[in-house]
């Protein structure tokens, strides 16, 4: 940070060549995949909702992600 303090963080990197890459899904199909999916960091549903919440706090709108969240029942 600008104050010189140390911050721990996790960053995910996309491998578009991976067989499980699902970047081309429409919102309905993405919501189906996300619902019930769980990874090492927790439920995918929670990740989507948290990401959307943080984007909104920054004044960033992601219409596709909003549609996914709506479809997973947020």
Annotate the secondary structure layout.
Elements lengths: L26 H8 L3 E2 L2 E2 H14 L5 H9 L3
Antiparallel strand pairs: 1-2
Task: Tell me the number of helical segments per DSSP (H or I, 4 or more residues long).
Answer: 3
Secondary structure: helix percent? 40-55%
**H/E series:** HEEHH
User: How would a crystallographer describe the biggest sheet?
Assistant: 2 strands, antiparallel
Low-confidence stretches: none
Give the number of DSSP strands: 2
Q: What is the beta-strand fraction?
A: 5-15%
Neighbour order of strands in the largest sheet: 1-2
Radius of gyration: 14 Å
Q: What is the straight-line distance between the termini?
A: 33 Å
Secondary-structure content class: mainly alpha
Shape: globular
Task: Describe the fold and architecture.
This protein has 74 residues and is mostly helical. The protein has a domain at 27-71. The protein contains three helices and two strands; from the N terminus they run H-E-E-H-H. It has helices at 27-34, 44-57, 63-71; strands spanning 38-39, 42-43. The model has no long low-confidence stretch (mean pLDDT 91).
